[in-house]
Amino acid sequence: xxxxxxxxxxxxxxxxxxxxxxxxxxxxxxxxxxxxxxxxxxxxxxxxxxxxxxxxxxxxxxxxxxxxxxxxxxxxxxxxxxxxxxxxxxxxxxxxxxxxxxxxxxxxxxxxxx
Length: 114
Prior knowledge:
37% helix, 4 strands, alpha/beta
């Protein structure tokens, strides 16, 4: 079983949870990501969360990534994973499979995936 701490930094989330509960993944709330490129406080918070996660060998997920500037900055900070409209809008489950190659495409290799 894996445990993710969702929307870290808002609501009832607390730094003490990082000491008491063995999380596998910390999802940084989109309210910090939204202004990460323009707001020094948001940047400092995101950087601190990523640093703590790295020290604990925990995956970080940035929620709400919408711009290339955010993506690049988060990549440079060492964020493990990202999600948001930059990558895809929410899709119905029946449309999800279009994002994955078919068995025939995987068997044929990279040349046929185009």
